[in-house]
RNA sequence: GGUCCCGUCGUCUAACGGUUAGGACACCAGAUUUUCAAUCUGGUAACCAGGGUUCAACUCCCUGCGGGAUCACCA
């Protein structure tokens, strides 16, 4: 466990919705911050004006809030806290301009006047020739439109000369060193023609100004790290520690994306997953503490999380395992009241309740389903019969037993329920009455119980029969049985 | 194609030179049982391949193969 307070940031871009991979990145940042008593910062990287999605900003905040990953500092619901703001990049343009100017003045960056079409042509030519295309200042052509707006590029060769180095060296948190040949890195754009910075530049400037100590980000950024390293060096800034997280991939092995249904992290809330279960699952996807423990509270994760036990290889997102874990949280980690409350919300949002359905009925119905559901979205369908009389068909009633027999069994059952001692609470009295019936007529208990089950629930699988009758009430049960008999 | 990363049951993973390669999800079987679950017990199932190094390799090295990421005035 690290002990020096750390400053980490989660820096999403509102070009779409936050997805599950982003949530895990945020989580690992969060865990490291909490563990060291450090600071978890939220920064908005909105430098892409073209693809900016207004609702994206709101969704990011909502999602982080639902997962319980509130930042200590930075952007939050339009408000900001912290001493190194603003935390929205579009509000930091003067900062970027300042450092770009500094680089230009030092001869390490230049205004790139090459036309877009010309640049594209060169790239295509290189592609056809199957050679690597690395753009250099020496390839600059005279612009046909000298008054136009142009981007500023970093001059890699000048930078290397300035740094008196022949290679770009950087190492990750685990000490694994990388030695990159600068010849493979082109003169990338720092400031776009619209005067907004690129990701590569804004990222470095902000991480430095915001005093970020550790950068935990997705593995897809690993190949842009040498660019960042050069920038830190050339600006004379201390480099942070880079930690690249293995990708979360879909069942086909490709990076998790919309194709796999991973469009929006909030969809897990809507499907009825518990945030605590999601956090637990996500934490284990790419990290473990080396023991066989797999259920962790948030506090335990904070305590035990460690950078050096982060997995290297990508992990497939396994919905079955997530469902299993969510099931554990539903039946073991939630208190009964918490469960009922959460379940009630789900039912009220559905159309299965009647206007006069009492909260007592909801409570007892929902409790009977607790160990059957994996996600709350299954609940309305499972319990609907408690509140509204089900449609019972003759076909369903007679799939296994002959119609006449079913009819007789049901009539006798209804009668047997009359003899239930109403002074005895619970389902024991009901069970006794029905079992006595089975013995008396030498029936197969499965046939009788199954028939009653179908008659009162309209389905072949349901919670325990006697508990169900008990919740429904003997009167209602008899009414339903009689309605079923009428169909035979 | 260039550069880089990765490679243990179907899936998530343990192992840090010496284990019958362990756990979990899923799956199968059994127990329980009024159905479905839940629970308990048991089972099937993996070191990408080939070379080295070593008394000993899943562990170290090399090559190959396979998968992925990235090559924008997107992040």
How would you describe the overall organization of this protein?
The longest helix has 17 residues. The chain is elongated, with a radius of gyration of 32 Å. Helix 1 crosses helix 10, helix 9 crosses helix 11 and helix 16 packs across helix 18. Strand 1, helix 1 and strand 2 form a beta-alpha-beta unit. With 488 residues, the chain is α/β, with parallel strands linked by helices. The strands form 5 sheets. The chain has a 4-stranded mixed sheet. Strands 5-6-9 form a 3-stranded antiparallel sheet. It binds one RNA strand of 75 nucleotides through helix 4, helix 6, strand 13, helix 11 and helix 17.
Which short descriptors sum up this protein?
13 strands; RNA-binding; Rossmann fold; 4 domains; three-stranded antiparallel beta sheet; about 10% strand; four-stranded mixed beta sheet
**What class would the helix/strand composition place it in?**
alpha/beta
Cα distance spanning the termini: 69 Å
How many beta-strand segments?
13
The CATH class of the largest domain turns out to be Alpha Beta
Number of distinct helices: 20
CA radius of gyration is 32 Å
Q: Which bin fits the share of residues in helices?
A: 40-55%
Beta content: 5-15%
> Which stretches are poorly predicted, pLDDT < 50 over at least 5 residues?
none
Say what the CATH topology of the largest domain is.
Rossmann fold
User: Main sheet: which strands, in order across?
Assistant: 1-2-3-4
Q: Could you say what the CATH architecture of the largest domain is?
A: 3-Layer(aba) Sandwich
Count of folded domains: 4
The whole-number mean of residue pLDDT values reads 92
Major beta-sheet overview: 4 strands, mixed
Form type: elongated
Report the CATH superfamily of the largest domain: HUPs
């Amino acid at each position: 466990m690290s002990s020096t307070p750390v400053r980490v940031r989660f820096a999403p871009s509102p070009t779409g919705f936050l997805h599950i991979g982003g949530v895990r990145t945020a989580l690992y940042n969060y865990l490291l911050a909490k563990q060291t008593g450090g600071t978890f910062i939220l920064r908005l990287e909105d430098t892409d004006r073209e693809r900016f999605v207004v609702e994206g900003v709101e969704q990011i905040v909502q999602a982080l809030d639902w997962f319980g990953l509130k930042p200590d500092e930075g952007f939050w619901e339009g408000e900001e806290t912290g001493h190194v703001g603003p935390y929205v990049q579009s509000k930091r343009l003067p900062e970027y301009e300042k450092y770009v100017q500094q680089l230009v003045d030092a001869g390490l960056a230049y205004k790139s006047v090459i036309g877009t079409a010309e640049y594209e042509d060169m790239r295509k030519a290189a592609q056809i020739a199957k050679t690597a295309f690395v753009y250099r200042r020496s390839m600059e052509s005279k612009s046909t439109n000298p008054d136009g707006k142009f981007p500023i590029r970093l001059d890699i060769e000048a930078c290397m000369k300035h740094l008196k180095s022949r290679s770009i060296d950087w190492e990750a948190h685990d000490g694994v060193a990388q030695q990159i040949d600068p010849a493979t890195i082109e003169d990338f754009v720092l400031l776009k023609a619209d005067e907004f910075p690129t990701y590569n530049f804004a990222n470095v400037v902000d991480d430095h100004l915001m005093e970020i100590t550790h950068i935990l980000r997705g593995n897809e950024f690993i190949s842009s790290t040498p660019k960042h390293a050069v920038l830190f060096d050339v600006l004379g800034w201390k480099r942070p520690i880079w930690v690249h997280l293995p990708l979360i991939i879909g069942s086909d092995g490709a990076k998790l994306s919309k194709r796999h249904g991973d469009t929006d992290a909030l969809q897990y809330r809507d499907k009825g997953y518990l945030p605590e279960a999601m956090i637990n699952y996500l934490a284990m996807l790419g990290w473990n503490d080396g023991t066989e423990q797999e259920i962790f509270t948030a506090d335990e994760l904070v305590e035990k999380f460690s950078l050096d036990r982060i997995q290297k290889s990508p992990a497939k997102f396994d919905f079955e395992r997530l469902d299993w874990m969510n099931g554990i949280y539903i039946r073991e980690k939630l208190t009964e009241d918490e469960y009922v409350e959460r379940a009630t919300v789900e039912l009220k949002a559905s159309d299965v309740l009647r206007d006069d359905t009492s909260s007592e009925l909801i409570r007892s119905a929902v409790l009977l389903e607790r160990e059957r559901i994996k996600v709350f979205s299954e609940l309305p369908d499972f319990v609907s019969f408690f509140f509204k009389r089900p449609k019972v068909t003759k076909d369903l009633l007679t799939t296994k037993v002959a119609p006449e027999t079913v009819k007789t069994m049901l009539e006798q059952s209804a009668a047997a329920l009359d003899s239930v001692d109403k002074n005895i609470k619970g389902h024991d009295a009901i069970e006794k009455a029905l079992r006595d019936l089975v013995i008396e007529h030498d029936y197969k208990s499965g046939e009788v119980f199954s028939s009653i089950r179908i008659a009162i629930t309209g389905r072949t699988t349901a919670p325990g029969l006697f508990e169900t009758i008990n919740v429904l009430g003997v009167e209602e049960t008899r009414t339903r049985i009689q309605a079923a008999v009428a169909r035979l």
